[in-house]
Amino acid sequence: MASYNTDELGKRFIVIEGIDGAGTTTQLELLARSLAARNVPCVTTAEPTKGPVGKIIRAILSGQMQAAPTTVAYLYATDRNEHLYGSQGVIETIKAGSVVISDRYALSSLAYQGVTCGSALPWRLNSGFPVPGLTLLFEVSPEIAMGRIRSRPVQEIYETLEFQRRVYTMYKRMADRLERRGWRIERIDAAQDIESVHREVESHVFAFLGIEA
Question: What is the CATH T-level fold of the domain 7-209, as seen in this structure?
Fold first, then answer.
């Protein structure tokens, strides 16, 4: 995994990561509101994207389509490349002056596809992507996360307790590996209540962006 980041991405690209049910989507929305209240230009996004490749991935995750684990790894890398470099993508948005916050990025592939097809292929596929300035890793036990997921009307193919346990372990391994290569990763106790997590997220992000609380 590359240890570099571009100047602009290093200053304005924030990623939120964690297993399913960790609360990343909820906190993404709350953070965006906090930044908007402080007049910080901010765009939120997510992977898989809503683009053509992202839609294929979502169909696989929902069980509507089937694909080999290695195929899914390639699809995620393709979707990520378009997410970064495509029209109105992350790079273009940051160059226009906005902070970009993404719900999942390369660490997600290293964790999930690391479980499904081994770490070598995801590592190779994602090695050339730029490093975000700040990654927030939401840590919560798979048991708590699955308790949250079970309240949803539909579960995806990865949303089982045994699989999430393996992903949880892989997230820790890959995050440690990325930190040794220069990634800035802050661990968040995502087992807390929503407001407590939000305050912790704000603290890290405001410090990173150099803005007043």
Answer: Rossmann fold (3.40.50)
